[in-house]
Structures are given as C-alpha cells and as structure tokens.
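Input/output pair, single chain:
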Amino acid sequence: MQRRESIHSAQRVEGLSVSDCHDYDDCICFRYLILERLRSVDDFIKKNHGLIGYTINKIFHDWNNAEKVASRANMSMDDLFQIGQIALWKAARKFDESKGFTFATYALKCIRRDILIELRLRGNTIRVPLSVSFYEQPKFRFVRGDKTATVEGETIFELITSEYNLQEEVTEKVTFDELIESLKSLSPKEREAVLMQVSGLTFQEIGKRQNVTRQAANVRYHAAVNKIKRKLIHKEALHK
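Output:
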C-alpha cells in the first residue's frame, strides 16, 4: 500500500505547472508544492532504493564485478546508482497497474535497461546516438584501448557492456583477441544476430531483418552464444 501511494505521489508531480501561478500568493503556494513534491521524490527513492541494488547485483552477479565493468566505462558505483534512481523515478511516472504486472517487475526492467544503455554509451570511445540504425553503426569506429576490432568489415561492439554480458559466462583470462577470434567462427547469420542483439535490437526486430520468426532469431542468437562460450572455455582449458 505504501509503495502504491508513493507511486501515485510521484505521478502527481507531473501535474505541477508554473503557468498556474497568477500572482504572488500563487507563486508562494507553487513553491511550497514543489518542495513538498521534491520531498516525496526523495522519500520514494529511499523506500525503493533496494530495487536498484537488487538490479545491479542481478546484472553483474556481485559488487566486485559491477565495479570492474563500471570502471571500464569510466564510471563508478555511484554512477550506476544515480542512473538507477533516475530510471526508478521514470518508472514511477509511467507505471500503469492496469497492465497486470507489479511495479517492482516494471521498475527492475527499466533500471536494467537504462544501466546497460549508459554502460554501452560510455564504454565506447566514440559515442553513437541510439537513433543511429544498426546498419549505419559500422561507419563508426569503436575502440577498446589501442585496438579497433573488426570481423570481415563489421565493427565489433564492446560486448562487455552489451545486453548479453559475456563476462557473466567467461573468466577474466579470456583476452579480447580471443573473443574476436571466436566471433569469426560463427556463420554470417549467427554473427549478424549477435551483433544486432548487442547493438540493442530485440529478437522481434532481428527476426524481421533476417526473415525468420522471433523464436527462430532467439534460437539462432543463443546457439551462437553457446558456440562462443564453448570455444572460449576450450581455449582456456588448453592454457591450463
């Protein structure tokens, strides 16, 4: 009940407008309302702060891993939490309980999405607007350290900050060159599916571009990921 009331309070902030101030007394009242709403925002964030920590831990599995990934994108844990707070507030404003799912479910999805998007944007030396289509993105050069990696002319994105986090599946011993080499072992369609998913496309969108169903695109993508994992794990075993 408290969460529902705080969500409704957050949504009421949208109704405030300076155009409602017609005289001095109105402006004083407006200022008072703004201060009250800001307090409600702060209270709302505090009450739901656990959702942010839970989401970060869910994405990266542990805090040390989260710190490592954040630092590679020139970010700190505080940055991740700040992004989560903004996402949480936006989720409260847009939440529609008539859709049939809980606020926590909706908020977790929003927080996860915004954190991953920001990591991808900050993790690239050259930022590419999200409005740029997948097929235009190879025109840009994505650099990791002093390397620019390509596979048959296709630019390889910073996979560590992608929607599917390969670091969850492979160890720190796997080098970037080995990761690139494993991508070369995929079929053109598999590689295309991986690149499109990494760039932010949904399986529905990937399916349309590859003229297959959403389910087929999903299966193709995960088959490709499993190939990458097997190849990397095999190489790691040989080095032991």
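The mean pLDDT is 66. The radius of gyration is 22 Å.
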